[in-house]
Structure formats: structure tokens, C-alpha cells
Amino acid sequence: MQHLNVIAVDHELAIHGVLTDSLSAEGYRIKTVGSISAFRRLENAEIADLYLIDQTLPDGNGLSLVRELRLRGNCGIIVLSSRSSEADHVLGLEMGADDYIVKPFRIRELVARVGAVMRRRAPMAGAANLNSERHQDCDFNFDGYRVSCAARQVIDPEGEAIPLTTAEFDLLIALLRCRGHVCNRDRLLSLMKGNTWNASDRAIDGLVSRLRRKLPVVNGKTSSYIRTVHGIGYAFVA
């Protein structure tokens, strides 16, 4: 496999060795640090394909680091947390994480979910070099927006790529595949990740809110492309 770089920021030093051994065995190159300040020193020399971020760090909230990393680009981000509440899970995804894993976790599960995030994000990395002619190939169109499943990319009516997280893109595709039909939250979660994604249905609400901001309506329309059907779910109506 291609060697991919992973940086883990976790305050539990005992986890460092476990992460290093398990991910190295799968072919990843991994560096571990225990704080945001240590990460700052490391990132001057290291750029990762995927970050494992502890939510509780000795010198700050890991979610602030998640938000910062997401604003920079399309790296993979997984939150590691001892907090299992629905609110924390939803907040992690809203900050831009691709997945949220509750401690203590099974090593095989973590390795599998790291692999899943990297597989979903790989086409997006390759898509960064696509030129405007190649953008013509797409799977869905609406109001000048073009969506490519192979490139995992959304192009706006002006021809610019819209940065979406893995979860945001997966939700958009799920909605587009059910275009014109109302889907409840459980159905959307199933379409997005099958039965392997341990997320609450409230996560859908936060993702919908973010998608609405990133896909502003055009052509004089005033209502969002994603319609809320109260008590049932959502429908894509463009």
C-alpha cells in the first residue's frame, strides 16, 4: 500500500505505543504527540494525510484543532474521546471531523475506521489537480452545480471546487440519490455509511446545516436545496 502519514495528538501517553504499533503494522507512518504545543512544533516539519485528535488535551480543546485543520484542507480527521454523549459526537462532526471514536476502543475497529476514512478521501486528493475540462464529467447536476462521485468533488456554478468534509459529501450523495423523495435520518445514515458508522441521527441535522451554507441557492431562488420535512426527515428538491 502507499505509505500515508498519520499524526496522533493524544494526552494518554499509554495510547501512543498502541497506535504506533497497530498503524505501523498496516503500513502507515505515524508520529505521536501529547499536546497542542507539541503538535505545533511537529507540524513545522510534518504534514499528515490523517490526524487522530484527542478531544481533551492538557493545553486546550482538541476540537479547536479539528476546526483549524479542516479549514486548511481535505486531510482526514478522526476524533478520539472518552466522551460518549450524543452532543459531543455531533459537535465533533460539526467541527469537521470525518469520524468520532469513543475510548476505550478496540484496536481493530480503529484501524478499520482509519482505513475507511482514507479510502473515502483518496479520490479527493487526486481531484485537486483536475482541470476545468475534466470537471465536465459529473454524476449529478443542479442549478449549475456539478457533482462527481469518482472525484468526490462538488463544483459551484462559477467553476470553483467546494471544500466538503467526508461526511458532508456522503450526505450530499445520499440526498441526491433520493432526489425528490423524503428520507428519514436513519435511512440517510444507512446510505452514507451502511451499518458501520456509529453516529446518532442528530449528526444528520448538523451536516444538513453545513451543507446548506456551502451550497447557497442561485438563479433567484430563496429556499434551500435541502428541504426539511418536520417529523420525518429531509429531501433534496433542486
What would you say this structure looks like, in words?
With 238 residues, the protein is of the alpha/beta class. It folds into two domains: 5-125, Rossmann fold (3-Layer(aba) Sandwich), CATH 3.40.50.2300; 130-236, Winged helix-like DNA-binding domain superfamily/Winged helix DNA-binding domain (Arc Repressor Mutant, subunit A, Orthogonal Bundle). It has helices at 13-25, 36-43, 62-72, 86-94, 107-127, 166-177, 185-193, 202-214, and strands spanning 5-9, 29-33, 50-54, 56-57, 60-61, 76-81, 99-102, 140-142, 145-148, 153-155, 161-162, 183-184, 226-229, 233-236. The strands form four sheets. Strands 2-1-3-6-7 form a five-stranded parallel beta sheet, sandwiched between helices. The chain is globular. The termini are far apart. Mean pLDDT is 85; it is low at 127-136.
